């Protein structure tokens, strides 16, 4: 019983040692690089958007006209 | 039973150790506030030559080549330097790039005749804990932090610099 309690305490404690941490403002050089931009590939974005609105029949939400048939 | 005791001792000490490490590791220095003395720059092994700050009003400006507003702030800093350097102001720009080449490339594009040092190990910035990039600290003639600028907001920030520096140089 005692060992179980200690083990569960250990698991809780290990939770504090996760890899998650706050990225300090001066450590954001990599995040600021061009390749980290979500909109770095206009053609790819357009294609992804096209697939998304065709699949979801959700055209219009992203400013594109069409009926959701995926043919425009 | 020696082994079992040792095992038990090890298991029982792990939670305490892990908890202690987990609690201690994320703890860092508190951010510098207005009124605090600025740490002694000589103790941080900065790359580059430090000017003599004795009796001067100092702006310590943290910048990096990847930071957009830092690019905007450099012409303003240069202007302040040209205007107030002869009146007792020293601007010290502290670069936080990981690679010195990135800093050199930045400086080849942005004119700066004020002193520039590099905090490659990030020791100084960790000690003062800036909240955003760029950040600058305006120190009075005694080395105390009088004003802190978080970010650079164009003419608004420039106006504030002018007003605060004029006040401190009086």
What features would you describe in this structure?
Chain A is 40% helix and 0% strand. With 72 residues, chain A is mostly helical. The longest helix of chain A is centred in the last third of the chain and has 15 residues, at 42-56. The mean pLDDT of chain A is 81. With 170 residues, chain B is α/β, with parallel strands linked by helices. Chain B is built from 5 helices and 5 strands; from the N terminus they run αβαβαβαββα. A 5-stranded mixed sheet of chain B has the order 3-2-1-4-5, with helices on one face. Classes of the chains: A mainly alpha (72), B alpha/beta (170).
Global geometry of chain A: elongated
Order of helices and strands of chain B: HEHEHEHEEH
Shape of chain B: globular
Largest beta-sheet characterization of chain A: none
Derived from helix and strand composition plus strand pairing, the structural class of chain A reads: mainly alpha
SSE-based structural type of chain B: alpha/beta
Low-confidence stretches of chain B: none
Order the strands across the largest sheet of chain B as they lie in space.
3-2-1-4-5
The multimeric state of the shown protein is: heterodimer
Our estimate of the beta-strand percent of chain B is: 15-25%
The counted number of beta strands of chain A is 0
- Tell me roughly what share of residues is in helical segments of chain A: 40-55%
Helix tally of chain A?
2
The greatest inter-chain interface is formed by:
A-B, 20 and 30 residues
User: Roughly what fraction of the amino acids of chain A lie in strands?
Assistant: under 5%
Write the element-wise H/E pattern of chain A from the N-terminal end onward. Answer: HH
For the sheet with most strands of chain B, the description reads: 5 strands, mixed
Task: Give the C-alpha Rg of chain B.
Answer: 21 Å
- Tell me the distance between the termini of chain A: 67 Å
Distance linking N and C termini of chain B: 78 Å
The number of distinct β-strands of chain B equals 5
